[in-house]
Amino acid sequence: MQTPSLVTRPAFRVIGMQWQQSDGGTIAQLWTRFVPRIPEIQGVQSANSYGVCDAHPDGSWRYIAGLEVTADAAVPAGMVAIDIPAQHYAVVEHHGPVQGLPDTFRSAYTEWLPEAGLVAVPGIEFELVDARFLGPEHPDSVVELYIPVNMDATDDDA
User: Fold this and answer.
1) Which of 59, 73, 89, 142 qualifies as a cystine partner to 146, CB 3.0-4.6 A?
2) What is the pLDDT of residue 152?
3) Residue 17's closest CA among 41, 1, 46?
4) Closest by Cα among 85, 93, 71 to 121
5) Average pLDDT of the chain?
């Protein structure tokens, strides 16, 4: 059981490469294609990388492997930009190989958020990959998962 931490993030922009459900291949292959192209991105704000999950109303979604950039950063050929609005987030950590990420997300939605009295809301989820990420198969890797939540739901017991 993890107790999610709560944060409010200001709006920010990510530039990177995308994978959509209709595309062939995997998210892991997307990262393999993206990493060598990182030097092409200008206006980078930190060494952290992001895995952005952007769901659409029709049930489809896309995943963007990218970096946080300045608002005016140019988008290199073959890449996309996504503007992530200011939002309240529940943050949980995934520990271990990336194959377990879906299970960590599932636990967050079905156990950890409800037990903390938090309600997930539609919005852009993302994975924050920082210096604690030691590789996709490494058992000690850490990835932070940011899930949009309604902060007002935490005040229900008044």
Assistant:
1) 89
2) 66
3) 41
4) 85
5) 93
**Cα–Cα separations (whole angstroms), residue 50 to 109, 117, 134:** 20, 27, 15
Phi-psi region of 130 (alpha: psi -120 to 50; beta: other; left: phi over 0): beta
Cα distance between residue 141 and residue 6, in whole Å: 22
Domain 5-155 bears CATH identifier 3.20.80.10: yes
pLDDT at position 41: 99
Task: Please give the Cα distance from 13 to 75 (Å, whole number).
Answer: 11
CA-nearest of 63, 56, 85, 76 to 15 is: 76
**Would you kindly state where each structural domain of the chain is located, as residue ranges?**
5-155
Structure tokens at 90: 């529940």
